[in-house]
């Protein structure tokens, strides 16, 4: 098998080393081929950061426009690598722009700046190249990661250049287009070369695969096949009764980490530590099939967050979900799950 | 038998080496094996040699590095009508080598087809080791004519010379041993087998880092005559490159006339969400055997507007043979109580043993001329395929369409006996394609075209290891992700690819995998990776995707709905809800959603494991199963089991039907039109239930031209294909 089920799913990979003028997406889903704007074949260089790799020279109004398709339907969190080289002193310009939602840029040749949209505008994260010992007029790789809740990390040439955990963030929303080497309206052309661009999202198939893998290993596949089909039917019926319901439930679910958890984590290091520990414990126990030991982890996390001022359960966001008519409709109709005792006991407890 | 020309070595730290003077024979295959040892104070990938001299053009055949990447063995070939006498120059650009050794010899009794000896090169393989011997194989295509030639290099750490002993039945051609004071030594040995042997082997004393290559050298073939001219340039070029298919032993389905299939099938109308019998209606629009594919022929004309409907909410599908349930019970229709879980392939097989038998061994062919090809490529904005196409002069794309009445594809055959694993990807109606990108001289005669690249469809092969990373060879899937087109250079060997495909005259030979009908240029079993993250099955095929909740029907355009990202959180939360543990269910779902993003650059605790696709099994040797060939063509290595292609123009049946093998989309309504707005755009096999992807329902006819050009650009931009 190839590289499948990585935690992050590569959804854009440009190398600019093919036919001049052809922007080919090498990500597995190939959902992010690009179109050159104002570029001519002479702007495509045979060599970039490494021999044999290509590069594109931007400047002024030149850009690559991507209208993503497969794999871009839900982002949430976000990772990007971009390899570039400034060609003038105090170079400026956008490295990439996800319309309305994120960007990476170089400004005045001294700082690299990443921004993500939040409710109040853009949260920006920048570092000075000289503080990291990096010369942007040499080939440089910047790597940015946003966990969708509260943490942003920036690496330059593989070394950590900045970590931010005290900002209130929002999940990265889906974007209708991505522009490389410029702003969407071509007003901030990057004054240099871009060699390689990669963008990832959290791999949704990894999450579902982890869930199903435990089912298969536990020998309860037949049970879940039937339950899954029934649940799909219930979801379809729900959509038929009210086409807005599924989206509404999804939105309410996502409001809880955005409106309650993220602000709490930004303000409290102990809460961040508790969550990180719970995630690690859960991951280990789930993969080992020790579901009975997960319940204390869940209860412990609930209590630790509560003790650090984050009351998820009592929050308006959670109550909005719990009392939502669509959600209650869904809970009312879902079939009973009575053939996977380990899973149900994980949630209900041994006493039930 | 090899004729030795020269051998030698040099331990000078230089980047260019010169052999003694030689005089190669006219029309002889000349092979040069070069061993080079990394020079002092150098790093990076060890250089590959280039050879010049004797008025010949030298092309790489294969190359291999020792496991420490410090020593390389390369084979180059040349063949010309009148080589000149002279020395060969072995150059490494600006890269200084520590040591270089060479062995040069020739064969006069070889296949002289192709450029610069390409026709004389068969299969090849390489191997690296650290033990006291090596064996590698390159089976002959024709055991009566072909022989194996091999070379080995040793990179001992002790600086001493180590002599090499040829394996049993093998004859040494040359052996070079170099030693250096305070330097590493190098051994190069070359040897050949008798005609018919398939491997080379070597042994020596002590455990030594080593690498070897073995190449099958193809003997002079039986004389073939080009097919007679038919009078039409399109038909002539189709006949010129008409393929040879080596089917696997036990194969149930062979390429058939798609028009006869249409005429025998029933046509059904389905409405969104297409998932169950309710969506297909109680009876077909047209009963089996009542369709006509040409206007004026017996039956209801497929070109009727209502029969060609294809949009987001309406679909048409052909059905032949009916359905079956999980216990293999036949279900002829969608009557109440029927499961309609799988296409009944036994019924399809029986039809092709009966009334449809004479429609077998048929292909359809289509020649996209330059203007049409550019017009189609221009419809793809990203990637800009018209610019990809511009790298070929007067390009034309020749497509051979192969329609198999059914497809078989299973998973985890070694541990999953259940029906879901066996039937996982089986369906009625299977389209495959052989495509040749031709360079023309501006005229349209059959002889004016030179193949530059070829494409063959099937499962996506497993990735190969390159520079420590897994990498797929150039490929592109169809819009539904069901079949992949794999593109390679036409008979131009390189350091990473062998000369392929093998040909008889201009007819390429392909090996067809049993059931899946994936095509390969090499016989035997092939590992495959047909699925991506979104479509990998789990639990012995019981789950079609990684999700325990079947996905919803894909929205128009084949994109995912986006719900998968939140589905597990919802699942855990609602189960928590019915267990009166709503909040804990939610927290469990929340953790699951963030578990993999919490450490963006940290190590992965280990991925889940989906089902393993069964390998593609092509015939172990060319003649092991049926061989489908151009009429009465003699084929090396095959003496029995021949079937001639029956494809032809202007075939008339007794009941007044007309059959052509040349595709003409303007009048043959079963093909989609170029703009995708007309023609039959439905499925070529029955819909089945419980098939969310879908994977077991019939396929749409793929846009093979687009797959080919996309795969070509994939190869250009990854560096796997030469531009």
Report on the architecture of this protein.
- The complex is a heterodimer of chains A (352) and B (723).
- Chain A is α+β, with helices and mostly antiparallel strands and 352 residues long.
- Chain A has eight helices and 15 strands.
- Chain A has helices at 204-217, 221-241, 245-267, 269-288, 294-307, 316-322, 325-333, 341-348; strands at residues 8-14, 34-37, 44-45, 55-57, 63-66, 78-86, 93-98, 102-107, 111-118, 121-128, 140-146, 152-156, 159-164, 178-180, 192-202.
- In chain A, strands 1, 3, 4, 6, 11, 12, 13 and 15 form an eight-stranded antiparallel beta sheet that branches. Chain A has a seven-stranded antiparallel beta sheet with strand order 2-5-14-7-8-9-10, with no helix packed on it.
- Chain A is globular, with a radius of gyration of 23 Å.
- Chain A starts with 7 loop residues before the first strand and ends with a helix.
- In chain B, the strands form twelve sheets. In chain B, strands 17, 33, 34, 35, 38 and 39 form a six-stranded mixed beta sheet that branches.
- In chain B, β34 (507-512) and β35 (519-520) form a beta hairpin.
- The two termini of chain B are 36 Å apart.
